[in-house]
From TrEMBL:
Role, per record: Required to protect lysosomal transporter MFSD1 from lysosomal proteolysis and for MFSD1 lysosomal localization.
InterPro entries per UniProt: NCU-G1
Protein name: Glycosylated lysosomal membrane protein
Keyword Nucleus: no
Organism from which the protein derives: Microcaecilia unicolor
Tree of life domain: Eukaryota
Taxon lineage: Eukaryota, Metazoa, Chordata, Craniata, Vertebrata
Transmembrane annotation, as ranges: 364-390
Record keyword Isomerase present: no
Gene label: GLMP
Main location: membrane
Gene Ontology CC annotations of this record: lysosomal membrane
Subcellular localization: Lysosome membrane
Signal peptide start-end: 1-19
The protein's assembly and partners: Interacts (via lumenal domain) with lysosomal protein MFSD1; the interaction starts while both proteins are still in the endoplasmic reticulum and is required for stabilization of MFSD1 in lysosomes but has no direct effect on its targeting to lysosomes or transporter activity.
Pfam family membership, one: NCU-G1
Length: 402
């Protein structure tokens, strides 16, 4: 047993050495930005400053909730907003990151619609549902969004955009709301709450929350639509990364991600990454896990009305230089529970620049596996050595008769 204890002690020391390296850190600033004559802040600027670069996340609810992701090779780059132009009919150029020549990459993601459909057969087949099963979609550009400055927490580096349907004659939003919670990170770690997303200093997090929104049917399921922009020398693509390790999200083995697919692979790009699961209660308990799935990207360049924030940064001719594609994420699984059970849904994703985080076995799991797989071999070796020693001792004690 002393050998087993010694082995476990050595494995613990190794794991501490692995975890002892100093992580890369950024200096993070979180600011609610409001105009000179505005009583409500609807812009949030997250500035993650590195040694020689800056990642800017500019969130806004000028139209559909939208985030601009801008990577600058200057640690001194700043956000500038021309409020007069931003609120004008032609907002092009109203939002700038300066110096402009420091910008190496930029993209945008807009959260545009929430679809609701009647899943009477409990198949969770969003793409195969008949048109008659769908209720009128909630257009998030038509929502009224609260003042983000009132939710700003500079200590926790978080803020929340909370919205209600501006036109709600049936009072489905009488006690409910839709929210987008934003969190920023100074260094890499893992989220405390399920699905325990892994993140780095190059990431921020967004949580989509539907709380107490009355469904329009007993068997309603919901779908979130996102629209993304990518320069025409490349395009976005979706990937699924599978792992046998479900240590942090039991029974969930799929990590989904929306990444940039460009010709020049030497350039790092933006990404959105999430586990294939949402939750039906605020504590994100395993018992209320709601599987989710993404659907094929489709081009909406000719049909999607651009939000003001995207036009303000990319310009009026954004469609000429950027691919505009939509992605749907549907919530629910065949024979599963419906939204009506709790009237609550929360889904999390990390948004960032560079290489998406990749899950791996924790040092604890590696130590356990090493003991479990190594002990039989160790016992065989120890047993063989012991037998040899005993055998040699027995022969050495024999006294021959002269």
């Amino acid at each position: 047993m002393w050998f087993v204890r010694r082995l476990l002690f050595l494995l613990l020391q190794v794991s501490l050495c692995w975890g002892g390296s100093e992580p890369y850190r950024r200096e993070v600033h979180l600011d609610a930005v409001s105009g000179p004559n505005s009583s409500v802040s609807n812009l949030l600027h997250v500035r993650a400053v590195g040694y020689s670069d800056t990642i800017h996340y500019v969130w806004g609810t000028l139209g559909a909730p939208t985030v601009l992701l801008v990577y600058s090779n200057s640690s001194k780059s700043t956000l500038n907003v021309n409020w007069t132009k931003l609120f004008s009919p032609f907002p092009s150029g109203a939002v700038r990151i300066e110096p402009a020549e420091s910008i190496l990459y930029s993209t945008a993601i807009a959260f545009t619609k929430i679809f609701e459909y009647d899943d009477s057969n409990n198949t969770a087949n969003f793409s195969g549902a008949p048109e008659s099963a769908f209720y009128p979609a909630y257009n998030l550009a038509d929502f009224v969004w609260g003042d983000v400055s009132k939710t700003l927490n500079t200590t926790a580096l978080s803020a929340e955009f909370q919205g209600v349907n501006a036109s709600d004659p049936a009072k489905h939003f009488q006690n409910g709301s839709v929210s987008f919670r934003v969190s920023a990170y100074k260094e890499g770690s893992r989220d405390l709450l399920p699905p325990h997303l892994l993140y780095t200093a190059n990431c921020s997090k967004v949580e989509f929350v539907m709380a107490e929104v009355a469904p329009r049917g007993k068997k309603s399921r919901f779908v979130l639509e996102m629209v993304t922009l990518e320069k025409k020398n490349g395009q976005k693509r979706t990937d699924s990364v599978w792992s046998i390790d479900d240590e942090y999200t039991p029974t969930i083995f799929e990590m989904a991600q929306l990444i940039s697919d460009v010709q020049n692979h030497s350039r790092a790009q933006g990404f959105l990454q999430w586990k294939a699961v949402a939750y039906g209660d605020p504590s994100s308990s395993r018992a209320e896990a709601v599987p989710c799935r993404y659907h094929q990207l489709h081009n909406v360049s000719e049909t999607w009305p651009l939000p003001d924030l995207a036009v303000a940064f990319f310009g009026e001719d954004v469609r000429e230089h950027y691919n505009v594609e939509a992605l749907n994420v549907s919530f629910g699984v065949a024979d599963g529970e419906f939204y009506e059970k709790h009237n609550y849904l929360i889904w999390s994703a990390v948004l960032g620049f560079g290489t998406p985080p990749r899950d791996s076995f924790s040092t604890l799991v590696i130590a356990i596996m090493a003991v479990a797989l190594g002990m039989p071999a160790v016992l065989l070796i120890v047993g063989f050595i012991t037998m040899c020693i005993l055998k040699k001792k027995r022969y050495s004690e024999y006294e021959p008769i002269n």
